[in-house]
Design goal:
Structural class: mainly alpha
Number of strands: 4
Order of helices and strands: HHHHHHHEEHEEHHHHH
Distance between the termini: 39 Å
Largest sheet: 2 strands, antiparallel
Strand order of the largest sheet: 1-2
Shape: elongated
Number of helices: 13
Strand content: under 5%
Radius of gyration: 26 Å
Amino acid sequence: MIFGYPLAATTENWLHKCLFEILQSIHAHLDKGENLPVWPAIIPTEYLDRLKSRTGVRDRLDAYQKALVDLSRVEQHQILRALKNQNEIALLLSCQFECEAITDLPSSIREPVKNLFAFAFSLLTDFEIRDQHYEIIYNSVSHHICPFCGFEPFDAPGARREALDHYLPEHKYSFAAVNLRNLVPMGHKCNSGYKLAQDMLRREDGTRRKSFDPYNHPGTVKISLINSEPFAGEVGNTGEPLPKWKVEFSPNSEESTTWNDVFDIETRYKRDVLDEAFNNWLLGFRYWCRDPRKTLPGSADEWVESIEGYAMYHEALGLCDRAFLKAAVFRMLHTHCKNGDQRLLNFIKNVVTM
């Protein structure tokens, strides 16, 4: 994940809190052997006016209660524990906590839980929670792009909504399905083409893994291409081989590995951006060098300095229009030329002066 979202975007999390309190209340009454509260008295007072007319929630809570009362005390406690643990999002993502998936719970409770939270998720739109959430995110970040790839653009609030991804997939962690802490705007390709229903907590073999927390992100992940090999890749449209790209992440952490695995970042960068754009980016350097206000480089040192200057220019642009990848390309070219790669330096000279 290139950058994170502001935690402030999750403050309007009242629907999740309301359902959480209602379910806890149901379990508490069962534990004490008391009659279960009826609708709408079961709704916490502060949410009563907003929710009492939502009979769809009432009906699904009834189904949940009916399934629950037929289970043993041990099974009821297991379900309550799953409710609590599935919502410890930060601790789960950092592997400091564990939780059972919905498939680990008694079969009779699974559909009532899924139905309740799937319906509640649809209410995020009705209550305008989803729009508020997205608007806070959009207005707080400098670059309106998907942070999971770094280049798919996000539309402004009021346009057709971006995908709202269940970071912990709802089919496994249904109790977190309306928790804004677990809901992240995501570009269509990242959401529908790559992440899909992958489990951020577990690898395909079932072992645990750490993942970036979208709302508690360490900062901007840096991309390096320094160890790429010029002229070692496929032949490009200039007749010269493209570089053999080596994409590296900083920090080189387990979280970065999970991000790369889930979203296939390295492959996408190589195939969809670097191979496709490399020659055009060289032409951009050509126009930059041939600006009438500049003096064309002469000596080898001047050429190396110009390449570095172009890298620094794009480093300063940050995430704007894939500049972070362009910067990494020219930082790599600068490093190889500075280290004496005469073939590469001559190739770049020819591109500029032809």
